[in-house]
Amino acid sequence: MADELRIDDSLSIPLAEIELRTSRSSGPGGQHANVTASRVEAVFDVAASRTLDEERRERLRARLGPVVTAVAQDARGQSRNRELALQRLARKIAAGLRVPRRRRATKPTRASRARRLDQKRRAGDRKRGRGKRWDDER
Fold it and tell me: Are 81 and 39 in contact (CB under 8 A)?
């Protein structure tokens, strides 16, 4: 496995900055699951990272907090869970670093305003037609 965790095209985090903790997995599995530490938790300390520049560090801290964690206990083996936890951590960090596009203010078109008013008029006519009818000839 590589010694870096690839986040996107412009960012890779060294695995030395990611702490990997193992523990016993929960759930069924019999005697083997009760003694093996197959659950893996990947922990990334945003504040202590030397890889991130200040802008990225602040964005991650604001969105995900000072520490980002990802857990995997899906597979039976620790090595597969390690890969899964690192993949999940990379996806979390990438999502936290994503810059949302700025919204461009728009106005409703003339046709859409006309459709809306026409729809409102029809709804009002429909409701008005539901009332009691009094005939002139009684």
Answer: yes
From residue 62, how far is each of 5, 50, 59, 67, 97 by CA, in Å? 22, 18, 5, 11, 10
- Helices assigned H by DSSP within the chain: 30-35, 54-64, 78-97, 110-128
**pLDDT tens for each residue of 33-66:** 566 788 899 999 998 889 999 999 999 999 999 9
Q: Which residues contact 21 (CB under 8 A, 6 or more apart)?
A: 40, 41, 43
Helices 54-64 and 78-97: crossing angle in degrees, nearest 10, is 110
Alpha-carbon distances, residue 33 vs 53, 83, 118 (angstroms) = 41, 19, 66
**Three-state secondary structure call for residue 61:** helix
Other C-beta atoms closer than 10 Å to the C-beta of 38 total: 22
Residue 47 CB partners (closer than 8 Å, separation 6+): 57, 61, 66
Q: Is the overall model pTM greater than 0.85, yes or no? A: no
Report how far residue 92's alpha carbon sits from residue 123's, in angstroms, rounded to the nearest whole number. 47
